[in-house]
Write a structure and sequence with these properties.
Elements: H1 17-33, E1 36-38, E2 40-42, E3 45-47, E4 52-56, E5 63-68, H2 72-89, H3 94-110, H4 112-123, H5 127-152, E6 163-170, E7 173-177, H6 185-196, E8 200-203, H7 210-222, E9 230-232, H8 237-246, E10 250-256, H9 259-270, E11 281-285, E12 290-294, H10 300-312, E13 322-328, H11 332-344, H12 365-381, E14 383-386, E15 390-391, E16 397-398, E17 401-406, E18 421-427, H13 430-437, E19 442-443, E20 445-449, H14 453-462, E21 467-470, E22 487-488, H15 499-502, E23 506-513
Parallel strand pairs: 1-5, 7-8, 7-10, 8-9, 10-11, 12-13, 12-20, 13-18, 17-18, 20-21
Antiparallel strand pairs: 2-3, 4-5, 6-23, 14-17, 15-16, 19-22
Length: 516
């Protein structure tokens, strides 16, 4: 049974003085490295380019470092290097691949506070969010190592008079394109899923969080993965995004990010380029416009805490974040009072991005401007019941904002905002709540607060999302407890952390030998 060999990593308690002191010491180590330059890594070679990407602390706009930016020519070189390395890494036994993963687990845990500190400063997360992300990465590593061992045994077949077997084999070079909002766990999980299944990759991290990715790549090398199996090629999407997807040696693309970019990747991957002898696979996790339904039987205090926690932790910048609360009319006013009270306790830190407040900055100026735009739209479409203030003087800070009295067709209730704004929509029946929840093009997460068993059973059938929760928040999926992935325009429903996820990067080969 799974429980006999898998235990989720435990998050650090930063009320413990020992943990707090170690993280503060790690911030000093990061401070000493601020302003450094970071090269590309292609086949183990560190390559410096003239064009740079600047990493900025969104909490105070301080420059954290400069990262070399990859050109199309160097991107081609990276893919060709990964392809040559695939010829040997794909034939490396599962024991050696798993050994490298286990060594990586040890190294990440050993560098835990240092990695957390980089994540906090580069992404704007608070301490607990950063460490929770590191725990998720460890869970990915351990689950993928175990499932890769299981897949290596092949598919069980019916007995016959022939010698038969069906084996899972790696497929080739992947383009890994991770997001900025989970710059460690999602990025690291994508990379390890490729490596443990015998594939190689080029990784183009987000231009907002490239240093966190670089620090991980240093550990990948120390863990014993061969040069060329992993290649680090930060670059603007406009410079290399299309070219690495289009390259005829690219076999799969593993992407997490916006719907716009995800759809573009699908378009490009569908085109068969000259010299290409396969159909490319795309694993994509995109956006969401996630709803939480609160019916008349719900515990309103618990529901308010769940909505606020889902909507405003990490400033609403999780793809799983709640951005719509759909509330039955007879409890609407009471629920809003509870939600406002909870939200007012959540503070927006305008310090150095390391003070561990509940809410920090959004990632960059573009994101800040976009959220401000939606706050203004919310003022026109409804009532700002809480928050609504913002400032980008020191960093990119916005108060957690609740918009009430909005219609189900309002823009703030239907368009993805990706920031700390939650629309509260009044509905007249549970059926209407489900209809409104499903009217969006997305289908990532959803939650229902209810004690009505008929409503709960109906939601299980009709609430069209990849991850559905009851009487808990819609965020904080735990590996092998809540396999994560969305449907519709939220992605390909490739459930992370699972055996099924790894099969996206493998083919099943049937082998039969006549014994006569």
């Amino acid at each position: 049974m799974l429980a006999n060999y898998f235990e989720n990593a435990k998050e650090l308690d930063f009320t413990c003085e020992e943990h707090k002191a170690k993280l503060l010491e790690a911030f000093k180590q990061v401070d000493a490295e601020k302003g450094n330059d970071y090269p590309l890594i292609i086949g183990g070679e560190k390559i410096t380019t003239e064009k740079k990407i600047t990493s900025i602390n969104p909490g105070n706009k301080e420059v954290l470092g400069q990262v070399s930016s990859c050109s199309k020519e160097l991107g081609d070189k990276a893919i060709e290097t990964a392809y040559e390395t695939f010829k040997t890494w794909s034939n490396t036994c599962i024991d050696e691949r798993v050994r490298c993963v286990k060594r990586l687990v040890h190294l990440v845990d050993q560098n835990r506070y240092y990695l957390d500190a980089w994540n906090v400063l580069e992404s704007g997360k608070n301490w607990g969010e950063a460490d929770g992300e590191l725990c998720e990465a460890l869970d990915f590593f351990n689950s993928y190592a175990k499932f890769a061992e299981e897949l290596d045994k092949g598919l069980e077949l019916q007995p016959s008079n022939e010698l038969t077997k069906a084996v899972y084999i790696p497929i080739g070079v992947g383009c890994i394109i991770p997001p900025w909002n989970f710059p460690f766990s999602i990025m690291a999980g994508m990379c390890v899923a490729a490596l443990v299944t015998g594939n190689t990759f080029v990784c183009k991290p987000s231009s907002d969080t490239p240093i966190t990715c670089y620090k991980f790549m240093e550990l990948v090398k120390k863990a014993g993965f061969p040069d060329g199996a992993f290649n680090y090629i930060p670059g603007r999407g406009s410079d290399i995004g299309d070219s690495i997807v289009d390259h005829p040696l690219t076999r799969f693309i593993n992407f997490t990010g916006s719907k716009e970019v995800g759809c573009r990747i699908f378009e490009h991957a569908a085109h068969v380029n000259e010299g290409q002898i396969w159909l490319k696979r795309v694993v994509a996790e995109m956006g969401g416009k996630n709803a939480i339904i609160v019916d008349s039987t719900a515990d309103l205090k618990k529901a308010a805490q769940g909505v606020a926690g889902s909507a405003f932790t990490f400033q609403g910048q999780k793809c799983s974040a709640c951005s719509r609360a759909l509330v039955l009319a007879d409890v609407y006013d009471d629920f809003v009072k509870e939600l406002v009270a909870v939200t007012k306790e959540m503070t927006a830190d305008q310090g150095e991005g390391r003070d561990n407040k509940t809410c920090g900055p959004v990632i960059n100026q573009g994101s800040f401007d976009n959220v401000v735009k939606y706050i203004k739209i919310g003022e026109e479409e409804g009532t700002i019941a809480c928050g609504g203030k913002y400032s980008d003087e020191k960093g990119f800070y916005l108060e957690p904002t609740i918009v009430t009295n909005v219609s189900k067709d309002a823009r703030v209730a239907n368009e993805e905002i990706f920031g700390p704004v939650c629309a509260v929509v009044k509905v007249n029946s549970f059926q209407e709540a489900l209809d409104v929840a499903n009217q969006t093009e997305y289908g990532l997460t959803g939650s229902v607060y209810s004690e009505n068993r008929a409503n709960i059973q109906q939601a299980k059938r009709e609430f069209n999302v990849g991850n559905l929760y009851f009487n808990r928040k819609s965020t904080a999926a735990v590996v092998l407890n809540h396999p994560f992935g969305g449907v519709n325009m939220s992605g390909t429903d490739a459930k992370t952390g699972t055996r099924d996820y790894l099969q996206n990067f493998m083919c099943l080969k049937s082998i039969t030998e006549d014994l006569d």
